[in-house]
Write a structure and sequence with these properties.
By secondary structure, this protein is mainly beta. It is 8% helix and 56% strand. The protein is built from one helix and eight strands. Strands 1, 2, 3, 4, 5, 6, 7 and 8 form an eight-stranded mixed sheet that branches. The longest helix has 12 residues. It is globular, with a radius of gyration of 15 Å. Bound molecules: zinc ion. Zinc ion binds next to β5.
């Protein structure tokens, strides 16, 4: 089992701009702040959603888009280094007006209606994503 031990770093509470891209605005913030490792959670709402499902057999992300107002019931993710730069990996659960929930791996294209984000930095050894893992074809922590 792979692991690294960290200590708690800075804690950020961030309100995302209305109309911004959910994934890209968090990604931009962590790069600006130099958050090299940590974890993220968020709630809010979007006016458009883009997420994906990783097909483990085909080893591709199948893209899903929803053109409707949705609650962000929960976004959870982590921050590590990809090719030396801070990288956000996050999953999200959306809820629609009927109360149904669905979600997946967050992609660019989610348009923020409102977003409140907690970013918790951890400090310690570099946490890097390696080359594609042969079993999963994913760039896992290495
Ligand atoms: Zn994912």
């Amino acid at each position: 089992m792979f692991f690294r031990e960290f200590t708690q770093g800075r804690t950020f509470l961030v309100r995302l701009p209305h109309g911004s891209d959910l994934r890209e605005s968090i990604q931009e913030f962590i790069r600006e702040q130099g958050v090299r490792a940590g974890f993220v959670s968020a709630i809010g709402a979007v006016s458009r959603a883009c997420y994906s499902f990783y097909d483990a057999q085909k080893q591709v992300y199948e893209q899903i888009a929803k053109e409707e107002e949705l609650e962000i019931l929960g976004l959870t993710g982590n921050i590590s280094l990809l090719d030396g730069a801070p990288f956000l990996h996050a999953h999200v659960i959306f809820g629609d007006r009927s109360g149904m929930a669905f979600g997946g791996h967050i992609e660019a294209g989610c348009v923020v209606f409102a977003g409140e984000v907690l970013i918790q930095e951890v400090t310690g050894p570099a946490l890097e994503r390696g080359a594609k893992d042969p079993q999963t074809a994913l760039r896992l922590w290495a």
